[in-house]
Amino acid sequence: MIPGAFAYHRPSSIEEAVGLLSKLGEDARVIAGGHSLIPMMKLRLASPTNLIDLGNIANLKGIREDGGDIVIGATTTQHELIRSDLLARKIPILRETSLLIADPQVRYVGTLGGNVANGDPGNDMPAVMMCLGATYEVKGKSERCMAAREFYQGAYFTALEPGEIVTAIRIPVPSAGHGYSYEKLKRKVGDYATAAAAVVLAISGGKVTTCSIGLTNVAETPLWAEEAAKIVTGSTLDAATVKKAVASAEAVTSPASDGRGPAQYRTKMAGVMLARALARARERAGA
Amino acid sequence: MATSQVSITVNGKKVEQLVEPRTLLIHFLREQLMLTGQHIGCDTSHCGACTVDLDGKSVKSCTMFAVQANGADIRTIEGMVNSDGTLHALQEGFREMHGLQCGFCTPGMIMRAYRLLQENPSPSEEEIRFGISGNLCRCTGYQNIVKAIQFAAAKLKGVPYQEAAE
């Protein structure tokens, strides 16, 4: 499969990339790892006439601490997330999630920025970012920050305006000793989730003090299951509470019926993934 | 259509060529450099038959444009043989342990296993299976591929290969 013809641009700074994007207009696309865009181009589902490669922009890469946050450059790859000792210590759910994305070769090239900015409901990181309360740093004509929880508007449809590029992902570091889990049901390696759930919680004196829940691929957008998290907060994660939270999370899903199963099944699997994620997060939480 | 000049090191040799931006790396390797060792299997970044080693990463060359590889250092199966002409330990392992039947996936499998052993010279069976999870083989059932990689890992460390008890 051969993509349509395009002109190739390889800027060396963010400013240059944004300038090109504004100058070249709607037929220009930015490319990072390209593992969503290139398959689309090969199928001619995307035919940009200009490609702006972000691969040569050094300050779009890297993982650093900034106050109580961790800031990850948009073109940082999943492989780099997996290898980061800092993330393993501070936000281990990112490593757990990255290891469930695609396969080793794709993870060497696929980027965090691409994963969150593409708007594909099958991508895993958006729900995790909603769960963690991350914000996306965006640059176009001006700079702004957007909350992950307000970023996703529909399948492949986000709050990103034409001419804007996600430059970094800023994540508040969860409390030390927090429990976490990303549970993903998939048919095989490399598949998108049939359903998946992200949980981050803190436990003190046997009770949940804070909890946040994200759900992947069970609606047109990733979901932040705010009500379900509220039900869990203050509880001891007893069976009755978990059952109520699962029902609440299931109620906000609206999956498509597709090769991964009928909608009803996928909703139930979202519930099963949430119950497992809550249990595992609890095991991992320090008292 | 405008072409771009790329300069890429392939199997230790620097090549400079003109490419159309839409030329995929696998087509560049196979059709411009006539390095037909890496195969096009699924053409959708699933099967791993086109895997090359690029700047210390295993990359599916059907999902990268040759222009993106400008300046990169690439190794393909043609560059695996030892400088004295003997087979690389992985090639030997695949032969000795019958790690292939039809052979279509083998060059991609070996290039992936090469990077895996660079990063982890003593992988467990589970780590090998996880490490090659982006490479599909429709003949072997993977059993002998895992053994081939274990054979190579042992040989590269200079210890005798011992097959695990079944």
Report, as a whole number of angstroms, the end-to-end distance of chain A.
54 Å
N to C succession of SSEs of chain B: EEHEEEHHHH
Work out the helicity level of chain A. Answer: 25-40%
Terminal CA distance of chain B reads 58 Å
| Helix amount of chain B | 25-40%
This entry's quaternary arrangement is heterodimer
Range of strand content of chain B: 15-25%
Largest sheet: spatial strand order of chain A: 4-5-10-6-7
Which segments of chain A are poorly predicted (pLDDT under 50) over 5 or more consecutive residues?
none
CATH superfamily of the largest domain in chain B: Beta-grasp domain
**Rg of chain A, alpha carbons:** 19 Å
Per CATH, the architecture of the largest domain in chain A is 2-Layer Sandwich
> What number is the mean pLDDT of chain B?
96
| Overall average residue pLDDT of chain A | 97
Short description:
The complex is a heterodimer of chains A (287) and B (166). Chain A is an alpha+beta fold. Chain A is built from 11 helices and 14 strands.
Describe this structure in words.
The complex is a heterodimer of chains A (287) and B (166). Chain A is α+β, with helices and mostly antiparallel strands and 287 residues long. Helices cover 34% and strands 25% of the residues of chain A. In chain A, helix 9 runs antiparallel to helix 10 (239-252) and helix 10 (239-252) packs across helix 11. Chain A is globular and about 60 Å long. The mean pLDDT of chain A is 97. By secondary structure, chain B is α+β, with helices and mostly antiparallel strands. Chain B has 2 domains: 4-79, Ubiquitin-like (UB roll); 89-156, DNA polymerase, domain 1 (Orthogonal Bundle). Helix content of chain B is 31%, strand content 15%. The mean pLDDT of chain B is 96. Chains A and B meet through helix 2 and helix 6 of A and strand 4 of B.
